[in-house]
Amino acid sequence: MPVADPNPLFCQKDQFNLPETIHYLNCATRAPFSKAVVQAGHSALSQQANPFGLRPDDFFSGAIRVREQFSTLINSDDPDRIAVVPSVSYGMAVVARNLAFKQGVQAGQKIVLIGDEFPSDVYAWNRVSTELGLTITTVGMPTEFPKGAIWNERLLDAIDSGTALVVVPPVHWMYGIRFDLEAIGKRVREVGAWLVIDGTQAIGALPFDLATVQPDALVCAGYKWLMGPYSLGLAYFGPAFDDGVPLEEGWMNRLDSNQFHRLMDYQPLYRSKAYRYNVGEHTHFLQMPMLETALSQLIDWQPTRIQAYTKDLMANAWSKLEELDCRLEPENGSSGRSHHLVGLWLPDHADPMAIQQALLNENVSVSARARVLRIAPHLYNTPEDVDALVRVLQSVLT
Question: Disulfide check for 359: which of 105, 127, 352, 364 has CB 3.0–4.6 Å away?
Fold first, then answer.
């Protein structure tokens, strides 16, 4: 039997500026800024109004701290393996750029994806697969319920000696179904493939252990469960990417680039490990302090406690919604549903977009994705938010 957390989290709504009349169960689309993150942004803007006294090291220090925080969050002991990226598509493009240099890659091998994946995790492979003569295998979602265990089993079956690359998230961005990354990572290493993870819909809210999963790359957008600003993300690149080819040749990524008086002494060497993959102008004087503040809060809150809070918050709602002929993936460990992002399958007669609009009319925010409502609570949500969701769905589905 699991041991209860001796220090459970309570509702943190007082740390946010969300109005009492708004029921925002939609962190999977965009996280609201906490009051502390907003203040960090205001302070950064005020500082940039007068740049007098700015030092060369100030172009680097904020990102250094953020790399350390992100490393803590994913249980990595090497912040030098973290790069600052503007988006998931940028991080995936780094992988695609370097796939040709993977040891043993050859024409006829395959890239394994999961079905209904976010476009940034799909488009990245079209060009490189053509150039290298690779094929793309997509493991679709099962039609039957429960889906998670079957989907995981089919994904593992698709990974064989002919696999060059596997791209998978911890949690499906639409359905909230988990993928057993430990088992997948083990299989990927056995066949000599690369494992690349889009952690955008999980890291920050779901515990992740880099040392256990051992991915070759992990890419996260910062504006969802990392609770930071838009167009700023973070990526881990493992040893497979050492000495690889970056997407751009930013001057900050070179050795001794903080010695501004010597920038004309062009430096052929990059800083160590993942530093070459940083996006240009990765200082982000306004946004980096906001992400730093957000990561500090997440480290304090702890993803394990966020999962526990969201599980308890929604526990009474699911049975009521199943009475309306809605369906959801059951809890089933690392191949069941997550608690911070849950896909609720609507009855066949229901129009997801019409239901989403009915919810918005009552100030309840969730997302309609295909045939499901994506419900994504966080620490700022209250039982009243959940009651409002259930009340509207009972009204429109009966």
Answer: 364
CA gap 157, 148 in Å, rounded: 14
Query: Which residue matches tokens 């989290």?
Result: 9
Class for the domain spanning 13-33+302-397: alpha beta
From 3.40.50.300, 3.90.600.10, 3.40.640.10, 3.90.950.10, which CATH number describes the 47-299 domain? 3.40.640.10
Burial class (CB in 10 A: 0-12, 13-18, 19+), 243: exposed
Question: What's the pLDDT at 7?
Answer: 87
Q: What gap in Å lies between CA 257 and CA 113, rounded to an integer?
A: 38
Average pLDDT value over all residues in the chain:
96
Q: Where in the chain is the domain with CATH 3.90.1150.10?
A: 13-33+302-397
In angstroms, the Cα distances linking 318 to 353, 396, 397 are 20, 16, 15
